[in-house]
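Troubleshooting entry. The earlier prediction with adenosine-5'-diphosphate gave an output that would not parse, so I re-checked the input for stray whitespace and re-submitted. Clean input:
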Amino acid sequence: MAKKVLKFGGTSVGTIERILHVANILKKEFVAGNEIIAVVSAMSGVTNGLIEQSNSISKNFNKRELDVLLTSGEQATSALLAGALIDMGINSKSWLNWQIPILTEGEHSNSRIINMSVTEIDKFLLNKGVAIIPGFQGISKNGEITTIGRGGSDATAVAVAKIFNADSCEIYTDVDGVFSTDPNKIPVAKKINKISYDEMLELSSLGAKVIQSSAVQTAMMYNLPLEIRSTFTERNGTKIFNRENIDYEKSVTGVAYSKDDAKITLIGVLDKPGVAADIFEPISNDQINVDMVIQNISSDHKKTDITFTIKRHDLLKTLEILKHNKRIKYDEINHNDRVSKVSIVGAGMVSTPGVTYKMFRGLAEKNINILAISTSEIKLSVIINEKDTLEAVKKLHTIFKLD
Ligand code: ADP
Ligand code: ASP
Ligand code: MG
């Protein structure tokens, strides 16, 4: 007997037939003698639909009310799934975030789970029943309903697995596991059987939405093994754990991309100490995350150019901040919001020389211009024009023998 946390994403519970299918998976696990906690997402499209409705009332819809609205998606799935199990003769019960409670801290729409009460649900499990917990949400210490970021049901599942001391945490989704790149965009992508936390963290932060990055971060912090697998096939999924358990045959494990970036260049900035701090301090004070920064070396030691990237939705705000920044002087400001970031990730890169030049050569062969570069021990990212994204991903996938 094991205590298992099973998480089902939006597509997995996207229709009533699929909810019944999920109920059957849970029934099988339960009848086999396991203690089962299911964490569920809203039915696919529901969260987006609710956001659209709020936008049609106001582009600046009240954040507290938005959280109240969005949590209703997961609430509906929880009740439908518990009801389906009860109808099959299996004892089951769903809890709302405040009934458990799932305690969070942080601002509306971007909170973090910090604790959960286990007593009542543990008692229910002991008395033989399948417990259903809504993903993506919680309650603050002031009693306000909160959500924990898009895709947050993954983070709920990992938090539940940790706090309930589960033996395993399985993320059920609409693909067979983690692939070398998005299999829905690049059909030659291959399933990865095992991947380390740090590689998965890079891939998901760099755009592979198969699992939310903060879920991977928590799993890594507590050394909690995860498995990502399909709701619709019986095939083995992808195991995510420590790097020591993995042999690296390939230098690159996967290719990820995101299309929500923007680039800003300040031309003719004074080349003296303190200028970069003066540029970026007010930007960060506004909670805007700067990703890549490139400063050219000035030939005359007087003026230089600084390029940096941010999320596309922060572009207008960042331009405003720069224009109102009295502490800096520059000749010109350029921006481009049609850029994307393509990244290769692999723990094997550390011990393989030549990965960098191969990536650049491959992109050059496709006539793809690199606008900015950033590296870390296990990843290499480039900013390119958005229109070249899929071609770049395909090329890199082939060069690094992932097809
Ligand atoms: P869920 O609703 O189950 O949480 P998501 O839509 O959030 O599912 O994540 C699954 C999707 O992630 C897949 O359908 C796939 O298109 C996408 N994806 C992106 N990159 C990858 C990758 N490297 N491996 C697998 N899936 C990926
Ligand atoms: N329903 C939420 C979303 O669409 C959370 C999730 O599905 O994980 O972002
Ligand atoms: Mg998801």
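This one parsed fine. DSSP finds eleven helices and 18 strands in the chain.
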